[in-house]
Every structure is written in structure tokens, then in C-alpha cells.
């Protein structure tokens, strides 16, 4: 065991799980649990199950990371295909295992050992799965990957060259207004050409999900969607109340910030694409490449606390950061965790912009939590639900503020200001996407035109500054079609806003009393997923954004912070 913890990433063995061995093993572990007559014997059986699942998820994780690091390697590609093939089987055994423990005569005794929340998680999983929806789940996967292919394969003509969506994004934020406008029009034309195709995929997804919900006994997909996200402590009513608070407290503030930005840029009759340009003098630029930034991050984490110092040195010494973009590497960024090695891993594609610093802080926050939760013995309780995970990462972005002069030099204040305003301005968009999805699944038979009209209505209420004079397709209310979460993971998007609101409290408390705020943050990270979202907040004395008035309490201190920036210097 000790030896395993000393391995570097390059020395991790590649074990490709075979279907036969995996199923046999899972079957025998399941039988072992079924034969238990008491909590005491079950405890040993559960331990065996956890051990195997940890090995399996480590093997699958190593395959996924190696494959995304080098998608052209045939060995990794084949291994990844094997993993994709057997994953549904593994999940179905997971559901069976949970069912046995839920129905055990000695369940009360087990609850004393593992806590009640674990059983709530199990119950939740049972409510969102049944063998009879497996064909639907396969179909759902097909449809979402069709969507991903269309978006990922976009080839957009712009000024004689061909770009994909993210490459074109750079021009939509160009300091030259004509360039922004032309790029926005190119994107609009592309969306117009693919509108029907994407709308059809979405329509099929909505009907499919509505059908699954009805097969499982739900009125519509909303409650099932919440269940699939592991939400055991709040429902759509609570979320609606929370959105109302954002409308009241944040929508007017965001509008003020947008107006200020346009005034400073000297733009009259601002269009949606104009808001991508933050400063006349351009965006903040970090001081160096990944090597330079990683060494700054190392010093930052070492300086923050003993826990974070131990963490960053573990990451660097064990080669658990792969940050540079290169040919063959999959796009995007993520943080994952290998249970056997107790090791988090950060994957990214640095591009020389402020995004690189954000990865070191945001994904660093995720990895720091994984590292601090590594000794939680029950794998299901190591990571919380998604809105809580984003608290770890988004708060770390703020705890990193005192080190921004190292990352950005003279651009540090610029970075902090744009980071804070972006975070505030994101909230009205986040609730727009969320409100829209609730309407969609309440009205599964609506047409594409009706969906767009509804989106436009919600957007006009939450983001009245968005104007699309030159972009007729976007003007119809089609912005949601470019938001992948709407297709891939319904109702997930609001999680980012919830976490953001909580992270704002960390910023305010950190500016007031760093030691106290940091201690609270470390405590939250160490709790991992032992409690649901609102339970974690209560445990560490953070405000619950669902409670009336709490959004205001977290937003108001930011006004003072915003005032301290002299934006005339930017
Ligand atoms: Zn994140």
C-alpha cells in the first residue's frame, strides 16, 4: 500500500478491465453481501466491495486520463472503448448492491456505522434507475453525443478562414468592434444553418426524458432530473425562490455593471457581442508559460497553509498536473481522482490567457478538496454533489487573490476586477438557463418556436442589455442552443450559480479575517461528501442561498469591494 502511494503518474500500470472478470467479481461480491445476516458481517463484505470498486475506478480513471492525454494512441483508445462498454454493467451492479443494503434486516445497525445520509443517497439512486429505462439511456447518450459532434465539428467561415466555435470565440471578444460584429454574424449564420438539426435533437431528448420520467412514475422530468443530480435536500420550488432572489438582488446590479462597462468603452447602442470586451486596453495577460505559472502556483499554495503546501508538492512530485496543449490531446480541462493512489489529477490545455491562471486556482481547488477528503473511507461520501464541488473551486479562485500580482504583474488589479464582475454578471445568465429548462420540461410538447419565444422572454427579463440587431437567429431566442449543459445534463447549470453565491461569502470573509475564512474553507473541503449541500453549509456556518434574504447578504459586501477598484486606470 505504502509503495502505491509513492508511485508517479508515469508509473501507474494500465489495467484494462475485462467484462468477464469484472462481472464475476461483482457477482461474487454481491453474493457475499446477500449472504450476510448481521451488520457486523456486512461491514466486512462492504469493505471488500469498496476495495474492488476503488481498484476498478482507479483503472478506469488511469485509462481515461491516458486516453485524453493522447487520443491518437491505439492502445489507450481501445482501452477507453472497453471501459465505455462495461460502464453500464458496473452501474447496474451498483444499483443492485445498494438495494441489498437498503432492504437488509439489519439496516438500522448499518445506518449507525455509515450514517443515515449514505442510505439517502442509495434511495435516491434507486428512484432514478430501473432496468426498463436502459434502452432510453443508451438513446439519450447517442443524442447528446450527436449534439457534441455538431458543436465540436463546427466549421465556421470567417474572413476567408475556417474556425471552430472556440477559435471563433476569440474574435467575438476582439478589441476592434467591426471584427466582433463580423464574428458574431458568422456565428449567427452557422447557428441558423444548424438550427433545425439541433432543435430536432433537443426535441427528441425532451420527449425521451419525459418518457423515462413517466415510466418511473414521475409527473414529468423535473423531479427525476433533480434525483439524477443527487439532490436530496432541495426541490424545484426552493430553486424557484432562489432565482427570485437573484432577480431582485443581482439583475439590477449586473445591469449597472454592464452600463458602466459600455460607458468606459465609449460604445453607443451596445450589442451582445460588445460585452465580451472588458477593457479598452485589452484583457489581463499572465506573466509566463505553464512552467512559470506552475512555479508561481507552487509558491502560492506553499504560502497559503501547511495543508495546501503538502498538497501542491504531492501533485508536482507525483506528476499529477498535465497543463500544456499539444497535438492529440483532448480539448478542455478537468480534475479527477485515483482512489488507490489517493491522488488527484489536473488536466488542462493552457493557451497563454488569463484562463491558465484560472485553471491553477479553480481546478486546484477541486484537487485540494479531493486531497483533503482522501481519508474518508466510504467512497460514496468522498465527493459531494456538484453545486458543493464548485464551492471548493470557485472559493479557491478568491483565496488566490492576494497572489495575483505574482501571476499578472501590473495587470493584477485588472484581473481581479474582471474576475469579480464576470462572476456577478454570470448569475443572471445562469438563472435564465435554469428557468428556461424548467419551462421546457413542464411543457414537453412545445414546439421549437415556442421554446425560443419563451427563452427570449426570460432573457429579456434577466438580461435586458442583450441586443441582437445584426444577428437575426440569436434575436429569436436561440442562445440556449449553444449551452451544452442544456443538452447533456439538465438542471445542472444552476449549480454554478449556487456555488458562486457561496464563494462570494468566502471572498467577503477572507478580506475581513483571512485566518478564520481559510479555516472554514479547509473544514468544508475535509467534509467531502459526508453531507448534502445545505447540510455542509450549516455545518461550517455558511449562508444557505435558498433562505430568503441570504443572496442579498452575500452580494452586498461586494459593492464595497467593487468600489475600491479605480477602473479609470484600466
Ligand atoms: Zn469546477
Descriptive report:
A 3-stranded mixed β-sheet has the order 3-5-4, with helices on both faces. With 570 residues, the protein is mainly α. The model has no long low-confidence stretch (mean pLDDT 95). It has 25 helices and 5 strands. The protein has helices at 2-6, 19-34, 39-69, 74-103, 107-114, 116-127, 134-152, 165-172, 177-215, 221-228, 236-249, 251-265, 290-304, 306-317, 354-372, 386-399, 404-408, 412-442, 448-462, 472-475, 484-488, 494-512, 514-527, 533-539, 550-563, and strands at residues 156-158, 161-163, 321-324, 334-338, 343-350. It binds zinc ion. Zinc ion is lined by residues 362, 366, 390, 393.
Layout: helices, strands, pairs:
Layout lengths: L1 H5 L12 H16 L4 H31 L4 H30 L3 H8 L1 H12 L6 H19 L3 E3 L2 E3 L1 H8 L4 H39 L5 H8 L7 H14 L1 H15 L24 H15 L1 H12 L3 E4 L9 E5 L4 E8 L3 H19 L13 H14 L4 H5 L3 H31 L5 H15 L9 H4 L8 H5 L5 H19 L1 H14 L5 H7 L10 H14 L7
Parallel strand pairs: 3-5
Antiparallel strand pairs: 1-2, 4-5
Helix pairs in contact: 2-3, 2-4, 3-4, 4-6, 7-9, 8-9, 9-10, 11-18, 11-25, 12-18, 13-14, 13-15, 15-16, 15-23, 16-22, 18-19, 18-22, 22-23, 22-25
The structure holds zinc ion.
The site of zinc ion has 4 residues, from α15 and α16.
